[in-house]
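Reading a protein record of the kind used here takes little practice once its layout is understood. An example of such a record is reproduced below.
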Amino acid sequence: MVPIDVAVFLSHQPLFQQLSPPQLQALVPATREVRGQKGQVIFQRGDACDGMYLLVYGKVKLALSSNGGVEKVVEILHPGQSFGEAAMFLGKSFPVMAQFIEDGLLLHVSVHAIQAAIASDSGFAQRMLAGLSLRLHNLMRDVARYSVENSLQRVAGYLLQLQRQRDDSVVRLAVNKNVIASRLNITPETFSRVLHSLVEQGAIAVNGRDIDIVDLPLLQQLEAQ
């Protein structure tokens, strides 16, 4: 496999794009590729954190597992997203496990290189804080949803989120239903049942992993009810 041009890739990421060419080049020796196949674990909960990760391609899930083996998906990551920053800055071990849910490529940037970039560019520090703040905001939003919203509202909200990201009436479930259900804190059976209910109400049509949002106002109404 041909290695990617690390400096060029980082220069196109929102977090790093304002760094100067010399600053980007300084990150290259401290960056390594992590390639993985579907199902491969990147790190386990409790492993030491010595840097942050950026997803080049593929998908990654962050999850927690109980002693009984029940898994709770905390986040599903897509290309261009990063993770591990909070544990890196705190000097703590990872609070979750990370696993490829399809073949993918990550870049791991060492904590020492990140600290040097922060010291040389206050704007970089501000972008790191903004990214962490956004993740905390999304986490609080999810906690609020799981506390007050029923399963239909959660599924409708998830589909509307996909619709806004693609700006298209047809959205695709990028991962399997078990992973999505865990992310929404419902069972796979409940997720399938809600999709069937939305079809019966005329809000959506389902064709495999493709979801056609037939009646957008109705779906928005169901999320808000």
Q: What stands out?
A: The CA atoms of residues 113 and 131 lie 18 Å apart. The first strand starts at residue 31 and ends at 36.
